[in-house]
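Take a minute with the sequence and fold tokens given here and flag any structure token that looks odd. Thanks in advance.
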Amino acid sequence: MTMVGMSDVLYRKYRPQRFEDLTGQRAIVTTLTNQLLFGSTAHAYCFSGPRGVGKTTIARLLAKALNCTQRASDSAEPCLECAQCLAMTQGNSLDLIEVDAASHTGVDHVRDAIIAATRVATAGAKYKVFIIDEVHMLSISAFNALLKTLEEPPSHTVFMLATTEAQKMPATILSRCQRFALRPILAEAMMGRLGFIVKKEKLTVDGPALEEIVRSAGGSMRDALSLLDQVVVFAPQGAGRDAVRELLGLLSQETVASFMAVLKANDPKTIVSEVVKYLEKGGDLSQLARDLQERCHLLLQVKAGLESFPGEDLAELSRSAKAYSFDELERNIRLLGRCLEEMRKSPCPQAVFQAFCLRMSQPGVDIASLSRRLEALERKISQSGGAQKSVPPEVSSAPPDPPAFKPPDPLPPPPVSSEFSADPKPDSSERIDADLLRTQWPSFVQEVQKAKPSLGHCLEDAEASVTAEGSILLTFSFPTF
């Protein structure tokens, strides 16, 4: 078996040098190659997507194809033999400038290393290409400084921006670029690429091991190749699925299935003791929870009728899936998700994990069976004549309706005293002397002001007089406008 040298790690050794070597991203590759064929390339590109899916690789390939001096007119592939292709492949081209925005975020670096360099003519290539990696890390001032140059660069300049978080970039920058969103690479395409590399390097890695690598890589080809490097060194005589899982710290399928059987037996003492034994062996409870969740998901898919599970024993999975209902598997998946979340926040993850294991061990309720039993009970009650009397009335969970509003009876009118009448007519002996009122009125007002100042001030403006019936008439004068 050939061992890979330190300077030739697999992801660098097998970095695509032609568009046809790219794994996945067919739509983007087709668009870029057509632009090269038709001569309609843009002055600025933005490649976004998760790590390890080919953003920087595509940018380098495009830069190489733009400056290739021997590229055929009917092909978009660089020749890889001319001086420009060789210089860019070796990383010593003066016209391919790569900037790491994560370590050069300030406006000064953008002004000195990028904007000033755009004014300088190329060193022999047709285009001076700037590849700015992790461009979302630039400061707002740096983006603002780059804005005008990005909108109207010199005719010999092409910008290629790469980012894993395009949502953090200003809209003014994105609107000046042609955007290409790269997606995680499909498992089938990754399996084909890994199989090609394993065969070419004459490595002893079986199919199930490659499937485990692809599953752990999560759509990142760089992660898959880095993991393949580790597996080859970890098991130089031949790597299988168990070797990969051991390297990654994952549990074997047999261990996970055994723990699932312990939970299904619903014996609290055994469950708690098994968790303690697992910890004594140096196990990771978070990893165990993730493996259990993955196992429940696998059983759920098998129970739903799916059969395409490479490297898995479908017969064993089918037997295990029969012991669970859909509701139990769904409940366990949700509980394990909550368990992982609470374990991250808890100062005692062991207690949290054991509590959730005891909850998962409880038998689930078969909703369909319960519904059938209720329907049978309803039919039995309806068929029996006198049984309805013994059935308790249905208790509604809704609050009772409030009693209807009844307006109160109107109060009787207050009794009218005989001392008053609607049109009082004072006795002639009680008539008020007008002269006396006129002379005593100021003194009366003063006494009122002592007790009720506000009322006294009002009475100051009033003119008191006596009516023909003997009543006091107050006349107020208001200014007119």
The first strand starts at residue 44 and ends at 48.
